[in-house]
Amino acid sequence: MKKNIIKVILFSLLFAGCGVEYSKLPPPKPIPGIPCPTPSPTPIPVVTPSTSPSTSPNPTPIPSPSPTPTVDPYVNAESIVNSYNEYRNAIGQESLVPGLSCTLYTVPQTTALIVGATLTNVGSFGFNGNFNQPDTSVSVGLNILPTALQQVYQTWFIVKCSGYIVSQNSEFYEFSLTSDDGSNMYIDGGLLINNDGLHAAQSVNGAKFLQANVHSFELDFLQATGYQELILDMNGSAIPGQLFYH
Ligand SMILES: [Ca+2]
Fold it and tell me: Ligand 1 mean position to 230 CA, how many Å?
């Protein structure tokens, strides 16, 4: 017992001032030259980053400015044709497709009119463009023909393009048909413009009230010899190909 008390006193003397309290004895002063025991450092807890999803709300994306919408000038025509195709399908007919169906014929060199001409069928092709052939030399070729045929058929032929024209609005339409040689235009089964015959470029006009609907259409053209021209305008400008179907 006595030994233990002496040990406590000695330890207290040796490590006094080192922050180690061994008894309730008054703290002695440190003895120079004797190092203090190094206390084991308190382990620093390792912080493991949380892998759980962040609870912060997703940032609201900044909407990019929407581009200026492109106005389709033929949206009415497409809507009208879609409705008409639904009707056609309901009665077992195929849907109309864009463009006209054209047939090329050769004719005898005695032909003076489209109406009543003796026709020899060469072949058919689809046409999605405008009737805008200016007055040009016979060697240029008619621009509504397939390119490969333009140098082959330059005189004594007739082209008949048929199908439908879509009236986007219910209104009067003024048509102007210019041709060298002859031409005829039919709408809703009736001859609206008669520009038939052998002649240099000349224009004939016609007007008709068309309901916003699909109307049967046919344009016939005769080239005999010499220059050729075929221009069909509606209300002052070439009829857009987007209004034709077959
Ligand atoms: Ca001609």
Answer: 10
Q: Which fold has domain 75-245?
A: Jelly Rolls (2.60.120)
Ligand 1 centroid to residue 183 C-alpha, Å: 11
pLDDT tens-place string over residues 185-231: 999 999 999 999 999 999 999 999 999 999 999 999 999 999 999 99
186 C-alpha to center of ligand 1: Å? 21
The rounded Å distance from CA 228 to ligand 1 centre is 4
Task: For residue 201, report the distance from its CA to the centre of ligand 1, in Å.
Answer: 8
pTM of the shown model: 0.72
In the chain, where the domains are located: 1-38, 75-245
Where do the DSSP E strands lie in the chain?
100-106, 120-127, 132-136, 157-166, 171-180, 183-187, 190-195, 202-210, 214-223, 228-234, 237-238, 244-245
pLDDT tens digits, one per residue of 25-84 = 455 555 555 554 455 555 555 555 554 444 555 667 777 777 777 888 999 999 999 999
Nearest to 183 by CA among 215, 162, 159, 212: 159
Q: What separation in Å is there between the alpha carbon of 149 and the centre of ligand 1?
A: 17
